[in-house]
Automatic annotation (TrEMBL):
This is ABC transporter ATP-binding protein. InterPro entries: AAA+_ATPase (IPR003593), ABC_transporter-like_ATP-bd (IPR003439), ABC_transporter-like_CS (IPR017871), MacB-like_ATP-bd (IPR017911), P-loop_NTPase (IPR027417). The keyword Nucleotide-binding applies. GO terms for molecular function: ATP binding. The lineage of its organism: Bacteria, Bacillati, Bacillota, Bacilli, Bacillales. It comes from the Bacteria.
């Protein structure tokens, strides 16, 4: 379980900037949660705090009761390597490596044997439908395939928590839909808890729940229920109440 408890973040600088104020929420094991809000509302800041890339100014973040803001350097490295998976907007694949080499990277860092790495890479690649491109370099594959490879890399060590920052941001709508269906499938099959920051209402409609933030504060949250189309509409309605820039609300329908 992920517990964000009264978290605030102030960026110090010539002029201090308060990016988050008293944010509290809980994400249960196996939940798939979206974070939405206008540009500059603090979504990436929040994701970075949970990813242990940055520290909150006040408050605590607990994962299964363990305060991740107070880990030693060594514990932190282990936590990131074993328990977290990341998916980024720009895929973050290494171009000099093949798709397979990219996928096994987290295992390499954790000192796993070659045979185990091959088996695990193969299993996840089959789930994501990318076995045919395993030996290709990342510049030889499409954006949608690159994001699948990035998802495979994020999942290969079976992390408890997967964090995704705009995973569909650089994809056309068909590839975006594919990627969200993959994430949904992995969430169900591997029971991984997922948290996704997105501007894309279609992508968000695949989540179980969407938390909205505005000006660094919790604004509201809505639950999916059983109809994705209705949920999509509710997301659009909430975004328009939330304000922000016009380009935060995509013109396309599901
Ligand atoms: N390192 C930093 N130093 C100072 N201010 C920062 C820093 N990073 C972010 N901010 C500020 O904090 C606020 C929240 O930024 P953040 O990137 O979390 O927003 P966001 O909701 O992810 O925006 P977007 O949707 O545009 O990516 C913004 O006003 C931003 O300018």
């Amino acid at each position: 379980m992920l517990n964000v408890n009264q978290v605030s973040k102030i960026y110090e600088g010539k002029v201090a900037y308060r990016a988050l104020t008293d944010i509290s929420f809980t994400i249960e094991d196996g939940e798939f949660v979206g974070i939405m809000g206008p540009s500059g509302s603090g979504k990436t800041t929040l994701l970075n705090l949970i990813a242990t890339i940055d520290d909150p100014t006040t408050g605590e973040i607990l994962i299964d009761g363990r305060n991740i803001t107070r880990l030693s350097k060594h514990e932190l490295a282990q936590f990131r390597r074993r328990e977290l998976g990341f998916v980024f907007q720009d895929f973050n694949l290494l171009h000099t490596l093949t798709v397979e080499e990219n996928i096994v990277l987290p295992l390499t860092l954790d000192g796993k044997g070659v045979k185990e790495m091959k088996v695990r890479a193969q299993t996840i690649a089959e789930k994501l439908g990318i076995t045919a491109i395993m030996n290709k370099r990342t510049y030889e594959i499409s954006g949608g395939q690159a994001q699948r490879a990035a998802i495979a890399r994020a999942m290969v060590h079976a992390p408890k928590l997967v964090l995704a920052d705009e995973p569909t941001g650089n994809l056309d709508s068909k590839s975006a839909k594919d990627v969200m269906q993959m994430l949904e499938k992995i969430n169900v099959e591997q029971r991984a808890t997922m948290m996704l920051v997105t501007h894309d209402a279609v992508a968000a409609s695949y989540c179980h729940r969407v938390i909205f933030i505005r000006d660094g504060k919790l604004y509201t949250e809505i639950n999916r229920g059983d109809n994705r189309q209705t949920f999509f509409q509710k997301i659009i309605d909430t975004l328009s109440l939330l304000g922000g820039h016009g380009n935060d609300v995509p013109p396309v329908r599901v």
